[in-house]
Amino acid sequence: HFTKVSYQPLRGKKVVITAGPTRERIDPVRYVSNFSSGKMGYAMAEAAQKLGAHTVLISGPVELSVPTGVHVIHVESAAEMFDAVISQYDDASIVVKSAAVADYRPKNIHDQKMKKKDGDDVLELERTTDILKTLGKRKENQLLIGFAAETTDAIGYGQKKLESKNLDYIIVNDVTDPGGGFGSDTNVVTLLSREGEAIPFSAMPKVQLAEQLFETILQQESSKLH
Ligand code: CTP
Ligand code: CA
């Protein structure tokens, strides 16, 4: 009877992963959000955990079960996600921002259910803070990995985000690709590095893809990871 000795390159390292959408409240019964299912982020957490990491998953509201051994922090809004991520950042080795953070939130949260009125047909919004950009500015030794879901020119927009947010890698996907996207169990992505490499991954289950993404990144980073 043998015990399986697994490959655990992330043993002793803290990996922080965000997943799912955020919800920005309008009033007690309504919110602004997006179609993120959280599946890719949860798959990234499962892969990090398998590779031996102390894995912290900061999750927006999703209907998924937390992978065994993963420490979860549940959040609702972009502001709550910001606070949770910042609180976990300093001693993290790797941060993966898979969450689909709302870019706008209602300017006012109403305590009571809003009533419709004639002529009152505009909901005032304001921008949320860009969590990943803040992390990029404060980066010390952390390896910072972003995601970008696009509907057109995924590589071009991905490269711009990699630079403007000071990332080490960005994983881009075209959500209109039939092999993946929101809610799907499979995904097809390209991994872009700050050195300008573009590594394509064919359509495959999100959990398998997450493992391959970590393996590829770890191969490139083995000497540098703190
Ligand atoms: N992101 C974030 N905080 C925000 C918005 C985005 O941390 N307020 C992160 C996402 O988690 C993702 C990356 O930034 O890892 C790219 O998100 P994306 O929505 O593709 O890019 P944006 O910079 O928001 O640009 P746009 O939505 O206009 O394409
Ligand atoms: Ca956005």
TrEMBL record:
<comment type="similarity">
    <text>In the N-terminal section; belongs to the HFCD (homo-oligomeric flavin containing Cys decarboxylase) superfamily.</text>
</comment>
<feature type="domain" description="DNA/pantothenate metabolism flavoprotein C-terminal">
    <location>
        <begin position="10"/>
        <end position="219"/>
    </location>
</feature>
<keyword id="KW-0288">FMN</keyword>
<protein>
    <recommendedName>
        <fullName>Coenzyme A biosynthesis bifunctional protein CoaBC</fullName>
        <ecNumber>4.1.1.36</ecNumber>
        <ecNumber>6.3.2.5</ecNumber>
    </recommendedName>
</protein>
<keyword id="KW-0456">Lyase</keyword>
<feature type="binding site">
    <location>
        <position position="103"/>
    </location>
    <ligand>
        <name>CTP</name>
    </ligand>
</feature>
<keyword id="KW-0511">Multifunctional enzyme</keyword>
<feature type="binding site">
    <location>
        <position position="165"/>
    </location>
    <ligand>
        <name>CTP</name>
    </ligand>
</feature>
<comment type="function">
    <text>Catalyzes two steps in the biosynthesis of coenzyme A. In the first step cysteine is conjugated to 4'-phosphopantothenate to form 4-phosphopantothenoylcysteine, in the latter compound is decarboxylated to form 4'-phosphopantotheine.</text>
</comment>
<comment type="function">
    <text>Catalyzes two sequential steps in the biosynthesis of coenzyme A. In the first step cysteine is conjugated to 4'-phosphopantothenate to form 4-phosphopantothenoylcysteine. In the second step the latter compound is decarboxylated to form 4'-phosphopantotheine.</text>
</comment>
<feature type="binding site">
    <location>
        <position position="113"/>
    </location>
    <ligand>
        <name>CTP</name>
    </ligand>
</feature>
<keyword id="KW-0479">Metal-binding</keyword>
<feature type="region of interest" description="Phosphopantothenate--cysteine ligase">
    <location>
        <begin position="15"/>
        <end position="226"/>
    </location>
</feature>
<keyword id="KW-0210">Decarboxylase</keyword>
<comment type="similarity">
    <text>In the C-terminal section; belongs to the PPC synthetase family.</text>
</comment>
<feature type="binding site">
    <location>
        <position position="147"/>
    </location>
    <ligand>
        <name>CTP</name>
    </ligand>
</feature>
<keyword id="KW-0436">Ligase</keyword>
<keyword id="KW-0285">Flavoprotein</keyword>
<comment type="pathway">
    <text>Cofactor biosynthesis; coenzyme A biosynthesis; CoA from (R)-pantothenate: step 3/5.</text>
</comment>
<keyword id="KW-0460">Magnesium</keyword>
<comment type="pathway">
    <text>Cofactor biosynthesis; coenzyme A biosynthesis; CoA from (R)-pantothenate: step 2/5.</text>
</comment>
<feature type="binding site">
    <location>
        <position position="161"/>
    </location>
    <ligand>
        <name>CTP</name>
    </ligand>
</feature>
